Fold NADPH-dependent oxidoreductase.
Amino acid sequence: MNETIKQLSSRKSIREFTGQSVKDEDLELIMKTAQRAPTSVNGQQISLVYTRDKETIKKIAKLAGGQKQIENADVFITIVVDFNRTSFAVSQTNEIQNIDKSAEGILVGAVDAGIMLSALQVAAESLGYGTTAIGGIRNNPEEMIKLLNLPKKTYPIVGTTIGVSTKEAKESPLKPRIPFESFALEDIYDNEKVKEGVLKYEVQLKDFRVKNNMNYMQSYCEQMSNYYKKIYNRKVAKSYETQGFEFID
């Protein structure tokens, strides 16, 4: 197993940090490395807004639902879908951008943001830092937009913490995943395998939590029900429209 596979195979979300600083040169390297990530049609419709300012990070933690894991991180990076950049590029040809008025535009932005998130985290973790993806910034998108001074045609879609992991967090057990055969499906989507995988994983995750004194946590099915029986971030569509995104297709 090479070092890259080893790192990816042992990836975990780190929620406890020592308070030590991420080195300036490491942070720059992380972001420069992530900038090499692919984007649709080389549009580079992603920008990063990073902060080390503790008061700003505290504000982000509060907006994301009072998450201590954000507040205790040394760095917070917001991944911004940036069709403002491409709109200006299009205007240089005396044309008007329309991709931001479509469902395809939303998918392009979300996919590129996800790729960027992965690139940032892999780069940070390769240097020994811990990270956690933060979707909670969409809890209060209007306030995040104000805090980051984001113009029209941009949107703060997801973020990541970066910090020095505590020894306990670093050595915590890896959470199991759904059975591989219900995840990697050859040729066609097998609905029965997927459902069987859910039931097996329900048992597997419960056993894992009992073994690691986490039995107070919800099971997989309970957790999915808690989140997905409702639309838990109801301000997204309205804030998208306020930012200049329309849906005309």
Notes: The first strand starts at residue 46 and ends at 51. The radius of gyration is 20 Å. The longest helix spans residues 103-126.
